[in-house]
Design a protein that fits this description.
Distance between the termini of chain A: 36 Å
Largest sheet of chain A: 5 strands, mixed
Radius of gyration of chain A: 16 Å
Order of helices and strands of chain A: EEEEEEEE
Structural class of chain A: mainly beta
Largest sheet of chain B: 3 strands, mixed
Number of helices of chain A: 0
Order of helices and strands of chain B: HHHHEEHHHHEEEEHHE
Shape of chain B: globular
Strand order of the largest sheet of chain B: 6-5-7
CATH superfamily of the largest domain in chain B: Cytochrome c-like domain
Number of strands of chain B: 7
CATH topology of the largest domain in chain B: Cytochrome Bc1 Complex, Chain D, domain 2
Radius of gyration of chain B: 19 Å
Helix content of chain B: 25-40%
CATH architecture of chain A: Sandwich
Largest interface: A-B, 13 and 11 residues
CATH superfamily of chain A: Immunoglobulins
CATH topology of chain A: Immunoglobulin-like
Shape of chain A: elongated
CATH class of the largest domain in chain B: Mainly Alpha
Number of helices of chain B: 10
Strand content of chain B: 5-15%
Structural class of chain B: mainly alpha
Number of domains of chain B: 2
Strand content of chain A: over 45%
Number of domains of chain A: 1
Distance between the termini of chain B: 40 Å
Oligomer: heterodimer
Chain lengths: 106, 259
């Protein structure tokens, strides 16, 4: 069910600062809420987001319980070389969702 | 003790007037008609307007995938609807030509599944039904609601209108009292909207998810401490139709973002 949406420019000039957006569908259940019968709704969150360019880490972020459902991450990177950008989200149980896109730097 | 007694008497008195006020006009003057979008903060409007950041598009994407998936036994929706469904959502709820029953978009999708695709109907508010509804409605984004008001739809519009005007719940409030008479004023931290359904299925922050118009109606009913109707109840479909006539000419915003 996990849906991922990425906004990465297809091309960029070398040295430019580009904006990257990554959105994933996830409930990000904080573990602090209770259901209608008073039972605790168990915590279910993504704890780590990473972005690699050909295996080299360019951005990473730790998520905690204060992040809303369907987290959107926006960050900037300097375009240095063409390659494959890999986006990876890891949840508290080690489950991983990832998506790859390529960028061409001229 | 005396004070509690007085409150109890007041509640009983207020609780007696459960009738519909037929003389009230639930419609909003054309020059005042405003989508729920107008009552949002600039940040929330920006989120709705950006087709990437708008989280409702997660469901639209999933709906697009469902629309084109099928096999020999159950053809895909796209196998018949080759030209897309632009403008269709603007005409719903609508009467089914064969049975004469009033169907909302969700009901129409389920009718297609059972009659033409040989599939079981999807449960109301299920992820798949929300996704398909959002995908179909998104194709009409920017088009004005275009409900046919004629002799056959009039009884249903009247039924929805009566629901809208009827006081209900422990608070003894009708939809009309907030959404026609008091819109634009504050209800605690929120500005009361005019109560239009032109953005649904919509992504609500409170839900952290996409939800149907009927889910929103249930929230309103629960809010005035009335017993909400079950999903798919004919009365709610009539309310959806009435609301669409009330919002006639407002543009469809699905998937809208709401508080």
């Amino acid at each position: 069910m996990s849906g991922i949406r990425l906004a990465v420019p297809e091309t960029a000039a070398k040295g430019d600062v580009i904006e990257i957006k990554a959105l994933i569908r996830h409930p990000m259940e904080s573990g602090f809420r209770r259901g209608s019968r008073g039972e605790v709704i168990p915590r279910d969150i993504i704890t780590r987001f990473e972005c690699d360019l050909d295996g080299e880490l360019v951005f990473a972020s730790d998520f905690h319980t204060g992040i809303a459902a369907n987290p959107l991450t926006t960050f900037h990177m300097r375009a240095t070389a063409s390659g494959e950008l890999t986006f990876r989200w890891t949840d508290q149980n080690g489950q991983v969702w990832s998506e790859t896109t390529s960028i061409s730097v001229t | 003790m005396i004070r509690i007694g007085l409150i109890a008497i007041t509640l009983v008195l207020v609780g007696c007037s459960g009738q519909t006020l037929e003389t009230d006009d639930p419609y909003i003057a054309e020059q005042d008609l405003q989508s729920g979008y107008a009552f949002l903060t600039a940040e929330t409007q920006a989120l709705q307007d950006d087709p990437f950041e708008n989280p409702g598009y997660l469901w639209v994407d999933q709906g697009a995938a469902l629309f084109t998936s099928g096999d020999a036994q159950s053809p895909a929706c796209a196998a018949c609807h080759t030209a897309g469904l632009k403008g269709v959502a603007a005409r719903y709820p609508n009467l089914d030509e064969k049975s004469g029953a009033l169907l909302n978009l969700e009901g129409r999708i389920n009718q297609c599944r059972t009659e033409h695709q040989g599939l079981a109907p999807l449960a109301y508010e299920s992820d798949d039904l929300l996704s398909l509804t959002a995908y179909v409605a998104e194709q009409s984004q920017g088009l004005p609601l275009d409900i046919s008001i004629d002799a056959r739809t009039q009884p249903y519009i009247a039924q929805g209108r009566a629901y809208f005007l009827t006081r209900r719940g422990q608070f003894n409030l009708s939809c009309q009292q907030c959404h026609t008479e008091t819109w634009g004023k504050q209800l605690r931290g929120d500005t009361i909207s005019q109560g239009h359904g032109n953005g649904f299925p919509a992504y609500r922050f409170e839900w952290q998810s996409l939800g149907s118009l009927q889910r929103r109606l249930r929230v309103c009913d629960t809010g005035v401490r009335a017993e909400p109707l079950p999903y798919g109840d004919p009365s709610y479909i009539a309310v959806e139709l009435f609301l669409a006539t009330r919002a006639q000419d407002l543009e469809i915003e699905t998937p809208a973002v709401r508080r």
